[in-house]
Amino acid sequence: MNKEQTIAELKNIVKPYIANQEAFDTLTEDTDFINDLKINSANLVDVILDIEEKYDIIIDNEAMERMINVKAALEIIETKLSEKM
Amino acid sequence: MIGNDIVDLDLASKESNWKRKGFLKKIFTINEQKLIASTEFPDVMVWNLWSRKEAAYKIYNRETGIRGFFPSQLECVYQNAILGSVLIKGRCYFTQSTIKNNTIYTIAVANKEHFRRIKSINPSIEILKKNGIPFIIDSNSMLEKPISITHHGKYWKGIQLID
Ligand SMILES: CC(C)(COP(=O)(O)OP(=O)(O)OC[C@H]1O[C@@H](n2cnc3c(N)ncnc32)[C@H](O)[C@@H]1OP(=O)(O)O)[C@@H](O)C(=O)NCCC(=O)NCCS
Description:
The complex is a heterodimer.
Chain A: H1 3-14, H2 21-25, H3 41-55, H4 61-66, H5 70-84
Chain B: E1 2-8, H1 9-15, H2 23-27, H3 30-37, H4 42-64, E2 75-78, E3 83-88, E4 91-100, E5 103-109, E6 118-120, E7 128-130, E8 133-137, E9 144-152, E10 155-161
Antiparallel strand pairs in B: 1-5, 2-3, 3-4, 4-5, 6-10, 7-8, 8-9, 9-10
The complex binds coenzyme A.
């Protein structure tokens, strides 16, 4: 998995839900979905469903619990993809 | 401790499609899904339960310092459209919800007696935050007072517990 590419894909996924354009433009691994991008928490479910659909993975409750920033999302995508192999 | 959460129903219907495949399952327990399936107004039930979870989460977050996304672990005990409680990891919080003018507003407390001691705060007061958790400085005592704030669309609510 190429991290740069996954970050770019993740940006596409979160784009419709963000309320802070500046934080989006300067997104890094440390960006928090709620505090920085101002994604409302109900839309966090949409982000999670969009990730599941895009990568054809299942994000269980345990993974979902951690899904509050870019870094966790990348780790979860990577782990779930490797489990599929 | 206290928590609150407001949902603007018009905005929620634009921002979120809860009928989307998989959506309800990620947020709600089996029992909650049954409640939603069996009511005449599922929209109202979805956002009523959701606002209870969010209000309760704010107390849990302040009490434990834990931040995370675990909506289905915050389990609503639904008494009626107004009253209920939310259970999470052995803790229990009490909720009071108001459905009015296309909004659903829930206040959660850790102790039932505290419902009587809730006071709205003036939006113009200076709000400070520690680790994202809001408080104010009481003008009489100069002590820090925990508050809870919520906003959605054009609505804003802030509460504190008075002595
Ligand atoms: C607390 C949280 C759930 C609120 O998100 P929201 O419903 O989208 O937004 P609301 O307007 O209702 O609440 C936001 C306000 O709550 C306040 N707040 C955050 N944590 C709080 C707490 N523990 N107690 C009281 N208030 C709190 C914040 O100051 C914020 O105000 P601000 O935007 O002016 O800074 C969200 O900020 C968060 O951290 N979520 C973590 C994961 C999650 O969504 N969990 C949901 C339940 S599993």
